[in-house]
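Issue 218. Parser rejects a valid record. Input:
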Amino acid sequence: MSNFGFGELRLVNPYEVAFREARSAVKAQHVLTNAREFRTLAEAVADCGLVVGTTSIGNRALEHPLRRLEVGGRLVAKKLAETPVALLFGSEKFGLSNEDMSHCNWLVRIPTREEHGSMNLGQAVAVSLYEIIRSPAAAKKNPELRQPADAADLERLTEMLEEVLERSGYVHARVEGSTQMKIRRLVRRMDLRAHDVEVWLGMLRQIRWKLLSCYPDGEK
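Output the parser choked on:
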């Protein structure tokens, strides 16, 4: 709950021993500390303008509209701007009872495979809350890019690469001009960032130093 920005935990007749001995994650103690206990589900959701139950369906016949989480999550997020919303989870062993579901406006399910529809309760809560707060628009935004390399950076890299290739014997005098143009075009097609250029220059300087150490008189 704390991971996704939800802090109001309400429990109906929790198993006292397990609840009181529970330990929350780092920075999430407030969720358990401020949790409220209720004797009945009706009391727990009394101030909510929307009550949504969760179910894995199974073999039971449902008397409520059922939505997949992708759709239900968007509806819950929209409603949260207007009124408190309760998202109900049953026990891990039995889920919500028919009596519990009678308090719901509609139900939501996580689309799991038929062969294994049950989920760990904590995982189901996390998946559901993430779907409510996630923003598809934000996912489409381009990540922040590092500063692109400018022409001067690329030329420094080009010159260093040319020198190393020449010292290694890769560049021959008769094709030197055409090779230099190929190298220059190659470097620019790499679409490097300024930081990447510095990394490449560092590697090439090390190679040049090694070549000079092995061939101090310029022999190849």
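Fixed in the parser; the record now loads. The beta strands are 10-12, 36-38, 50-54, 66-68, 85-88, 106-109.
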